[in-house]
Amino acid sequence: MRTTHLEDNFQQKIDAEERIEPKDWMPETYRKTLIRQISQHAHSEIVGMLPEGNWITRAPTLRRKAALLAKVQDEAGHGLYLYCAAETLGVSRDTLLDELHTGKAKYSSIFNYPTIAWADMGAIGWLVDGAAIMNQVPLCRASYGPYARAMVRICKEESFHQRQGFEIMLTLSKGTPTQKAMAQDALNRWWWPSLMMFGPNDAESQHTEQSVRWKIKRFTNDELRQKFVDATVPQAEILGITIPDPDLKWNEERGHYDFGAINWDEFWQVVKGNGPCNQERMEARIKAHEDGEWVREAAMAYANKQSQKLTEQVA
Amino acid sequence: MSAEEWPLFEVFIRSKSGLHHKHAGSLHAADATMALENARDVYTRRQEGVSIWVVESKHIAASDPADSDAFFEPAKDKIYRHPTFYDLPDELKHM
Description:
The structure holds 2 protein chains of 2 kinds. By secondary structure, chain A is mostly helical. Chain A has helices at about 1-15, 30-45, 50-55, 60-85, 95-100, 120-140, 145-175, 175-195, 210-215, 220-240, 265-275, 280-290, 295-315, and strands spanning about 250, 255-260. Chain A is globular and about 75 Å long. Chain A starts with a helix and ends with a helix. Chain B has helices at about 30-45, 70, and strands spanning about 10-15, 20-30, 50-55. The longest helix of chain B has 12 residues, at about 30-45. Chain B is elongated.
């Protein structure tokens, strides 16, 4: 009886667009859904640093290098905002990291693709960050306060990410034929994985319905994917490069672009760990964590010693 | 997992002088000095602040949302604390 009453109150608050804060009562499933989604999001920011980190030392100019470095630093920051938001739900940072390192928690599959050319930095900023922004803007109004606030901060910072990516693509596509071909090749490789970033079709998405009711999600996967395609096609036209989809065409009746079928087998293969870089990403992540262990320990030992000294002085 | 987890700090930032410090978020650090430096790097990468406070989260006492109705009840029936409660003539332009 009592739980039903609490659940009704909870849903009423959500329906009234009130935010849920850490100490408020919430259904266990709401808490679990949020921990899963927020931590997965945090892991994506952190693992997402790896494919771009690959090009920092090889950026073609100092301007590009400074921008890429700043972008990767932002991603570290975004990961931290999100871990903290997840921790307000009662899960420890160590547990979250452990779940990433043991493969229990997922991160966005897009980061399991390799960055083999400089143009990939352009395509990632333009498409991957573009898709992320499409996903993240509605999350600024998510029903859970700490998550929504973290997303506001992230969205503010992320608009530069997409613009710097587009600028890279623009420079390449206005450059020599080889440079233009490089931009086209990057688009060819990143287009479909970017569309997959929105997740399975609505009919196959197991979490969407409940998440929409709880106002964690405001739009379904397919709605966001369509928005992304509609926004991106004119941008590719500005660049003068071709989206690798023969079925892509404007549908006057729907007022949207139609696009071809997504290769979901590939998507699930990458999710299951069989993408081109899954193993490499996890190894790099675990190594960084393990190599940092002595630093974390030493810093804690030093802090404990200092506070002990202070206590002795007072006594 | 073997090492002790760094304590959690709450971060408050004054965006410019003259304004209050406002809660910005939280972070883990070994001590207050490191918390300040990390807060600078995590929360003020774009000059969002001129001053930072950090306090270990465990030192913050918070009201309980489950009791908030009763807790804030005393102020509920005191509308006479607001200027609009008082009936004054229209001729009185500014007060």
